[in-house]
Design goal:
281 residues; alpha/beta; six-stranded mixed β-sheet; 11 helices; 13 strands
């Protein structure tokens, strides 16, 4: 039985990785400057932040339709026996709901999974699924492994401002206010599919150190670890600081990844973080 892997653009997987593993990605949408743009196709985070500096209205995002998913599933099933479709947390987006509606047309040939994560938290699950599919593992085996991984996976990140998360309804207003005071830097995580507070520190240097310390503790606790590094425009130098702080720490490096336009819409410029998961689970 051959299995095709489908995800969505919030996985933040590069076109090269998608092509390498034969993964199909369904784009979400960004409504910006009066137009609907396909994430990763018609718009980049740099486009967004440039427009915002020019005074354009804050963008909003929306999920693909069930019809768009059905079209991708139909195409995938021409070459594969089954489809495993893995998506952004249902707590953050209606995308997985659209995928499930579309899957009803195909019976047990399409399995939809809520990753309970986002960005490379989702992306690393998708890559793992693609690798296991290439090894000939069955869909139930792959799904069971993804569930074990999700229970141990971790995302730790910080943003320059909580304004973007607040405006888009992904975090409360009181927390956003606090983040703007006294150079307080929020430490954020994704738990049970939601963005939650992981603490707060004063100043940029302490925020980077918090991420470094968190990775070190995770590796000590879990042993073999895969780590993917995340940033938006303006966060590249911060990412280099984090990497420098992790010199000598053993982990499987999954590379640096720029957040796509949809995730960047909520995180804002100057975001930096890391996604962690066990090598085996």
């Amino acid at each position: 039985m051959t299995t095709a892997i489908v995800t969505d653009s919030t996985s933040d997987l590069s076109p090269g990785l998608l092509a390498q593993y034969g993964i199909r990605s369904v784009p979400l949408y960004v409504l910006f400057d009066g137009k609907m743009h396909k994430d990763g196709i018609d718009i980049t985070p740099a486009d967004l932040f440039r427009g915002l500096k020019e005074g354009k209205k804050t963008p909003s995002t929306s999920q693909p339709s069930p019809a768009e998913f059905a079209s991708v599933y139909r195409e995938a099933l021409e070459a594969a026996d089954q489809v495993l479709s893995i998506h952004i947390s249902g707590q953050l987006s209606g995308t997985v709901g659209s995928a499930r509606l579309a899957a009803q047309e195909f019976g047990d040939r399409v399995t939809v999974v809520d990753s309970r994560s986002v960005s490379m938290g989702l992306g690393m699950q998708v890559l793992r699924a693609a690798q296991r599919a290439q090894e000939g593992r069955s869909v139930p085996e792959i799904v069971a492994e993804l569930e074990r991984v999700a229970q141990q996976a971790d995302i730790r990140f910080t943003v320059d401002t909580l304004d973007f998360l607040r405006i888009n309804g992904r975090i409360g207003g009181a927390a956003a206010l606090l983040g703007g005071l006294l150079n307080i830097k929020p430490i954020l995580t994704v738990k049970n599919g939601r963005v939650e507070s992981g603490g707060r520190v004063r100043g940029h240097k302490k925020a980077m150190q918090d991420i470094v310390d968190h990775v070190r503790k995770y590796v000590e606790a879990h042993g073999g670890t895969r780590a993917a590094f995340l940033s938006t425009v303006g966060g590249e130098d911060y990412l280099r600081e984090v990497r420098a702080g992790l010199s000598g720490v053993p982990f499987e490096d999954m590379g640096d990844h720029q957040l796509g336009a949809v995730v960047a819409t909520h995180a804002g410029p100057g975001t930096v973080g890391v996604t962690l998961e066990p090598v085996t689970a």
